[in-house]
Structure formats: structure tokens, C-alpha cells
Amino acid sequence: MQRLEISLQQKKIASEILIGRAIRQQVGQAISNASGLNPRRIALISNKRVFSLYGDKALKGLKKEGFKVYPWLIGDGERFKSFKTLQTTLDMLGDIGFERNDVVVALGGGVVGDLAGFAAAVYLRGVNVVQLPTTLLAQIDSSVGGKTGINLTVGKNMVGAFHQPRLVLIDPETLVTLPPRELVAGFCEMVKQSLVADKELFDRTVTFLRTAKNRSDFLLSAELEELITAHCAFKASIVANDERESTDRSDCKSRRVLNFGHTTAHALESITNYRRFRHGEAVGYGMLVAGELSKNLGLLAPDDLELLRDAVELCGSRPRADKLDINEIMGALEHDKKSVGGQINWVLLDGVGLPRIVEGKLISKKVLRLSLRAGLQAHPRQKESSH
Description:
Elements: E1 2-8, E2 13-19, H1 27-33, E3 41-47, H2 48-64, E4 68-74, H3 83-95, E5 103-108, H4 110-122, E6 128-133, H5 136-142, E7 147-152, E8 155-162, E9 167-170, H6 180-197, H7 199-212, H8 222-241, H9 262-271, H10 279-296, H11 302-315, H12 326-333, E10 345-351, E11 354-359, H13 365-375, H14 380-383
Parallel strand pairs: 2-9, 3-4, 3-5, 5-6, 6-9
Antiparallel strand pairs: 1-2, 7-8, 10-11
């Protein structure tokens, strides 16, 4: 088992990350052993599909430690990250008499983690949350760092809070039950993170993607577990230095660099009502657009753009985006939650492992349109997709 920790000096607490096969079955013991956790009740928040796969053993593990457990299932998909779902979840916590020392456990992917984490953040002004992510994207990204939230009609994650989990339990065994598109989404997020990290993590990630699909056991390999750990370690280092994504920072260690590919991605998700793309699939296109922008602004060398394109293609087929209305995408970009002073701040690249934050006013609409068209083009794999 691998162990990481995010120490937050201002709060004098630590967010502990444990990574290992079958660790999901030890969730009760992990909560019992965790410093500062002493709950009587556990709200186990999940969705129907994930709970049917992993709910029973999670329940048994929690009840074995003497906790009173209340399962709560939400809908599956980004559209359920809503005020309505949040309201019913908070009502549930109130109905069961949840108290300040009780614990919310989020069992599922990013939607479950974001919604459950936000409910924990606002109920009684904050109760403890444990993340048990079951998708690759959630394991390396959304479960780590304390970002929680829900969507508004005008944009994604527009309402939320920073609320660090006390525990993150990452079990690579859950990846074997993922649908292929969820794996593609997770791989895209891996590529995104490695591109803003360093050349070493990028090369490790690309090497794994090149060799993985020739092996039937790649999801249970030691290489993937070690790669997940490396990605979590990188994100933990960023979060520890810039927990709340300060708008005053624009250095390469700012948490804002983790938004690489997300500006376009959120616009694509929004204009398609969160039904066409998995989040990571949209990030795949977002990276391509950001890469094109970087090249068109003279920041990124053509050879590095080709490395980016190849890495995204290795992730697998994504639903096509080349038929979407560029004007509609441009309109959605104006509502990006990362805008400052009315301007979108783009995370672009000077090279692999060299992120740069660029103010939107420095990017003309002509260059943006050109980059959107090029980045959203259907490449051979996408042309084969009927999504």
C-alpha cells in the first residue's frame, strides 16, 4: 500500500491518501484508525451502478467497525450535480440526525465525489468526508485536493467549496469494471496532468499508454498503481502550496495550471447539456485547443504540439466535436468560472512540463476561432466514432 499526505498548515490538518488493491474493503478500519475521526453515523453516498458493484462490501466493512451506516444513492451523470440533488442529500443528513463528528463517505466517480464533498462542506458548516473514488479520473484528480461543487445552467462547477477529505482511499481494482469511455476519460486526465507536471511524468504516462493495451492485465498492473501514485503525488504537491487556487499566482506551481484543457472542456460540456462528453473526453479536446493556441501564439514548438496530439490519441476514441457550433462555444467560454476581471485566463504551454497562464485579452477572437477549429477536428479515431 502506498501512502501520501497533503499537509495544510493554515488548518493544521492533513489529508491522507492511501493507494492499494482491495483497500476499498478496509474503509471501516481506515476510518477507525484515522486521527481525529470518531463518528457514530456514516452517510455512504454513491450511485446505483457503483453501489451494486461495491456497496455491499463497503457496508459490511463499515458495520464491522460498529458504525451506523445510511446508504444514499444519487443519479449518474453531470446533470445530477445540481441544487436539487444537493437539497435532497442535505435533507437526508438532517433526517438521520447527522452530527458534526459523523462522516460522509463518497463511493463513486467525480460526480459522486463532488456532490458528496459539497454536501459535507455545507452541512452544519462542515463535516468530515472520506473519498473512495472508483474511476481513474477521480482517483488521480477530483478526489484529491478538496474541490467540491455543483453545476449551474451557465457553467460547470460554478457553486462549490474547498473542503479537504480527511481520507482518500484509492483501489485500482475498481478500474476493471469501468466502461471503456470512462477509461478514455481517465487517460485524458492523466495526459493533462503530466503535461503541466514535468517531462518525466509525461514520458511515464505515454509509455504506459503505448504498452497497456497489449496486455490484458494492465488495469491490475504494478505499473498502473505506481503511475496513479505518481500523479496523486504531483497533485498533492500543487495543492499543498496553493490550496485555494489563488488568483494572484501565475507561476508553474499555481493550482491554476491544473486547469489546462478545462476552459474549452467546460464549454463543450455546457453546450451539450452534459450528455455528449465524459469530462475527461472533453478535456482531451480542451488540451488540443490549448495546444493549438500555444502554437499560434508562438509559445509551443510544432514538435511539442505533435507530442501532445499523439498522447491524446493514445487515450482512445472520443465523441466527435467538429460539428459543434463555434459561436456557441465562444459564448459558453465567456461564462468560464476561472475568469478574472472579466477575462478568461488560459493555461497554455511553453513546452512539456512548462505551463503558462495567459490573459484572454492577449488572444484575439480570430486566433481563438482558428485554434478551436483545429483542436476540435475529427482525427481518424474520432471519425470512426458514431457518438
